[in-house]
Design a protein that fits this description.
The chain is mainly α. It has one domain. It is 62% helix and 9% strand. Strands 1-2 form a two-stranded antiparallel ribbon. Strand 1 and strand 2 form a beta hairpin. Helix 1 runs antiparallel to helix 2.
C-alpha cells in the first residue's frame, strides 16, 4: 500500500467509500421494502378477517352453514390463507374451508371460547 502512488490511494479510498454507501443504501431499501410488504400483508389479512367475520356472523345467527362455507371459500383469493374453520358458541365445527383439501381444526377448547368472548 505504501508503494502505491497518491492518485491510486485516493481512487481506492473513493471506490471503497462508494461501495460502503451503496451497500448501506441497498440494506436500507431492502429493509424498507420488507417492512412495507409486511404492513400491506397485515392490513390485507386484517381487512379480510373483519369482512369474513361480519359475513359469517349472520350465517351463525341464521344457522346457514352453506352460506358460511361459501363465505369461507372467498379465502381462496388470499394467497397466504391455507385453511379456515368457523365454530359455533359451543365450540362445534360449523363450517370449514381448506386450500389443499386438508381438514380444518375440528374443535375449540371451552376455555378458548371464554377467553375470546369474556
Amino acid at each position: 500500500m505504501r508503494s502505491l502512488p497518491l492518485r491510486a490511494k485516493i481512487g481506492l479510498l473513493i471506490g471503497v467509500s462508494c461501495l460502503v454507501i451503496l451497500v448501506g443504501s441497498l440494506s436500507l431499501q431492502v429493509a424498507q421494502n420488507w417492512q412495507s410488504a409486511r404492513a400491506t400483508h397485515t392490513e390485507t389479512i386484517t381487512t379480510t378477517t373483519e369482512t369474513l367475520g361480519r359475513d359469517c356472523a349472520s350465517a351463525l345467527q341464521f344457522l346457514d352453514d352453506s352460506y358460511a362455507s361459501e363465505a369461507l371459500e372467498g379465502l381462496a383469493l388470499v394467497e397466504s390463507a391455507t385453511q379456515a374453520a368457523l365454530f359455533d358458541a359451543d365450540g362445534a365445527l360449523f363450517a370449514e374451508w381448506s386450500r389443499n383439501g386438508e381438514q380444518a381444526p375440528v374443535s375449540v377448547a371451552a376455555e378458548d371460547i371464554e377467553r375470546e368472548t369474556g
